[in-house]
Amino acid sequence: MPTRAKTFDSHYPVTGDAIGTFPIHTDADVRVAVAQARIASDKWVALGFRGRKKVLLAWSKLLMERIEECTALISMETGKPVSDAKLEASLAAGHLAWAARHAQEVMRTSHRSPGAVMANMSATVERSPVGVVGVIGPWNYPIFTPMGSIAYALAAGNTVVFKPSEFTPGVGVWLARTFAEVAPFSNIFLCVTGLGDTGRALCEAHVDKLAFTGSTKTAMVVAATCAKTMTPVVLECGGKDPVIVAHDADIKRAAENSIWSSMSNGGQTCIGAERIYVVESVADEFIAAMLDAVKNIKPGEPGVGNYGPATMPKQLEIIQSHIKDALKSGGRAIYGGAKSVKDPYVEPVILVDVPEDSMAMQDETFGPTIIINRVKNVDEAIILSNASRYGLGASVWSKRQGKKIAAQLHCGMVAINSTISFAAVASVPFGGVKDSGYGRIHGPEGILEFTYARTIVRARFQLPITFTSFKRTAGNDKLIIKLTRLLNGRFG
Ligand code: NDP
After folding, report:
1. Domains in the chain, ordered, with CATH?
2. pTM value?
3. Which residues form the Aldehyde dehydrogenase domain (predicted)?
4. Would the CB of 393 count as within 6 Å of ligand 1?
């Protein structure tokens, strides 16, 4: 993207050193990018499913060939361990390949029954790409999260303009550069960089759909901005994901997975465990297993720690305020505490018996902290899990009641006897309800999200009577009422 604009730096969160300089793309730059993507759109559609699949599979292969380069960059911009970045990048490449391989089948024209009254018609529903998709991404998983929109939108036949987080612009630019290496022509996938204002400009640039991943607070601003131009949105927002540990859970496995889910990536995972409801009869055993699982977990720079620093420095204050509020309102720290926040790191914190109305139970903490609250039974755990403004994911640990519990949770995704497993299964949709957002990425639903339905109803032969003409007679009216009564049963 050419630009006349100012620049901003990205930083290595461990030291705060500047590691890259990027343009702040202006409203005009963003409009140009969207216009270029729109021009490329017809050619991208004309390439057909097979042509697009070839390009996207080549990109997926290239991402894996260049995984060292990609993950070094992710690690530098986020501070996360390279091995975590590798897992993230591999999952992103997997989603890309899945979307490329399944778009044709998912978007195939479907034939519908026209019903007896309209039996002379053939009814079909076609799926068309929406056109140009704007993607706005967060910094916590800078390749995996936006790829959930980018891959599925491209596979469906859209061109894409991507605005990465200001904390991870290098990853966004790298993605666009590698795509350009396999692209048959330019402007299919563009990256614009900048601060929040560049994101706002993308919302106002008349894209045909805007896929946003980030905090609920920004999502509300994005939705309001997009509403002004009737731009439809997909919103993938924050969570306060619960874990339910039933009496028949595999306690050791539940504890090890919950520690990983809550602490890995420094707790900066939208679908990471934030609160655990454990049934009283196994609570002591579970808490002991949690303490055992956490004892060797430490933050540190890549290559040293199990997880890195807070990528976004201002999050440290929020994490500390949640811990302090939990303790002030009657909760207890059984591992770490308010002093565990040591800029730029946060050491693991385990809190117990935290009141449900405290900040730490209500709001997304986004740090390596976990709260364990005891409940009488699974029913109470379900009620408390659902008593949240968020509804992204959940994890359930039970040998026999997993599906029954899962079916009662008000959220978009549930992992039974596993943690965040749904994010790695490309064939299932990803997304939340309530303040966690709406719309879906991943899976067939993720492809359809970036399409619109076009209904085609064709007269196969003409009937001797006509309903859609001013020549319709009183006899025709009687006939349609009689037929409808006959075929659908008497009304009332
Ligand atoms: P933010 O909401 O702060 O930012 C998200 C993106 O929006 C960034 O690219 C940001 O740009 C951009 N932005 C900021 N202001 C505007 C605006 N007015 N108009 C348009 N775009 C704007 O989220 P974070 O980057 O801090 O990400 C963390 C959050 O993301 C957490 O709440 C986490 O739960 C959530 N998340 C949700 C996921 C899901 O799939 N449900 C997955 C991963 C994270 P800039 O950075 O330049 O300000």
Report:
1. 7-237+442-452 (3.40.605.10), 242-425 (3.40.309.10)
2. 0.96
3. 5-456
4. no
Distance, CA of 7 to CA of 462 (rounded, Å):
65
Tell me whether the omega of the peptide bond preceding residue 344 falls within 30 degrees of 0, making it cis: yes
Is the shortest distance between the CB of 138 and ligand 1 below 6 Å? yes
Give per-residue burial for 212-246: e unless 16+ CB within 10 Å, then b. Answer: bbbbbebbebbbebbeeeebbbbbbbbbbbbbbbb
The CA 213 to ligand 1 mean position distance, Å, reads 6
Task: Say yes or no: CB of residue 213 within 6 Å of ligand 1.
Answer: yes
pLDDT tens, residue by residue, 313-369: 999 999 999 999 999 999 999 999 999 999 999 999 999 999 999 999 999 999 999
User: Partners of 279 in the beta sheet?
Assistant: 375
C-beta of 476 in contact with ligand 1 (< 6 A)? no
Cβ within 8 Å of residue 424, ≥6 positions away: 91, 94
Q: How far is the CA of 194 from the centre of ligand 1 (A)?
A: 13
Q: Copy the structure tokens of residue 357.
A: 């109305």
State which H helix or E strand residue 53 sits in: helix 48-65
The separation between the first and the last C-alpha atoms of the chain, rounded to the nearest angstrom, is 63
Q: What is the DSSP letter of 439?
A: S
236 is catalytic: yes
Pocket mutation for ligand 1, best pick of 207, 213, 217, 449 (most atoms within 8 Å of C-beta):
213
| Alpha carbons 311 and 345: distance in angstroms, whole number | 9
